[in-house]
Amino acid sequence: VMPWRDSVDGILIMFLGGQETGTAWADVLFGDHAPTGRLPLMLPATEADSIPPGLGGSVPYSEGLETSYRSKKFKAAFPFGHGLTYTTFEHSPLVKETCDDVQDCQLRIRTSVKNAGSVAAPTVLQLYLEFPAVAGLPAPFLKAFKKTSSIQPGST
Q: In the predicted model, what is the mean pLDDT of residues 75-98?
């Protein structure tokens, strides 16, 4: 948790950094590369918005699949999949399409993305679905994601 998060202008997080971590940070900080990453987990607003660690030799797993972004009980300071970049994007309404020409396809969703800002950058589209309540599964859940190529300002 980050109780100081509202007192700073920005928070940078890098997961799985490697040999070129310093170069990657410099490219983003100096504007040579637009940030494109997304959080692989939910960062809780408070300690109460997380699953407590197990103590002793037994760890109960009572939350089942209601962890991280799938739990309606937790408030996120930064939700799963969150990420900012140096531009803004606009998305057209989702369109459900048939997938007659694609094997093993049951549902196809299409949208277009416009770079409404002034800096070229890619983005990551995320599709979340919910099962009916009778399924007894937490909702929503991430079903698919797609990173675009770099989109020029004003382009779709």
A: 93
